[in-house]
Structure formats: C-alpha cells, structure tokens
Amino acid sequence: MTADNSSxxxxxxxxxxxxxxxxxxxxRVHAVxxxxxxxxxxxxxxxxxxxxxxLASEQLWVPPLLDxxxxxxxxxxxDGDMLGPDxxxxxxxxxxxxxxxxxxxxxxxxxxxxxxGDSSAAFYCGQMTVDLVVHAWDLSRAIGxxxxxxxxxVDFAAREVAPYADELEKSGLFxxxxxxxxxxxxxxxxxxxxxxxx
Length: 198
Prior knowledge:
Elements: H1 3-30, H2 48-66, H3 71-74, H4 87-103, E1 111-114, E2 117-120, H5 121-143, H6 151-161, H7 186-193
Antiparallel strand pairs: 1-2
C-alpha cells in the first residue's frame, strides 16, 4: 500500500468514526425530555441546554473553518444561544452541516485555522470526534440514558488523545485527570483521563 493510499484509508476511518460519534450524540439529544433541558450535567456549571448548545456551536464552526475561515473572520457569529425554540431541530441542522463539510472530497487534506494555531483538518476532525464521544457520556448521565459508549469510539478517542493527554488540563477545557480504579475498563480509563468521575 502506498503512503497516499494509507492516508486515504486513515481518513476514511476517521470520517467513519466522526460520523458514528455524531450519530451517537444525536441519538442522545433526541432522548432529552422537555423537562430535562435545564437539568445539571457532569460539566461544571453547564445545564443540558448549555452542553448541547456548546456542541451545536462547535458543529457550526466546521463548514467555515474547512473553507479557510479564521477565528477573526467568523468572530462571534456562533456565540450565545444557537438552539433557539427547537433545540433538537437546531442540533440536527448543525450536525448535518458539520458532517457534510467533513465528508466533502479532500476536506481532511486541508489546513484549518484554529484558536491554537494552524492544524490539519484530519487532526481537527479527530478532536471533534473525541469531544462528541466524551460529551455523549456527559449527556447520557445527565438525562439518565445508557452511559455505555461504543467500543470502537472509545478506542479511537483514547488513541487520538494519547499524544496530547498531558496538555488537557492546561487547556482549561478539562478538569484534572482522575486516577482510574484497579482493573478499570477502557471507557472508564478514557473518561478518567478526561477529568470525569465515573
């Protein structure tokens, strides 16, 4: 297999995992009851609405970033409430736009301008997948849904985050890692690494 074919295969797997994570999170959004949107989540100071809104905003950033936009050119377009009167429909619209943008031919070969600096779109896609996976657990716990994450997504997220695991807390976006209990399974180890107490 040539290096180019290997890269294509890697990108295909990355896109598949992103699509799976997006679908899994979407299933959880559709499971939120009307009386649960103001409920607490494992994310400090975030309600269910805040959590889903955060993810919706992240999805809305994907199309412009993949088109070469910068943080400055987008500005505050996706700040504030992106969910409006119909949170589920708003999430679906944002998720479909992000998925379609990543699936465009050659999208993962581009460079994106992130707040942390320029990055490959493939790395960005991986980060977005990890975020969806971990926050799907947060949302599941918040609404009393099954907290079991798909094994393939747990394995992907663990591999993806391993190279920069030591930087997670420093980013300010994650709590300090939690020491996993003896014999912890892969999901528990991933969540502990991301600062979750399971």
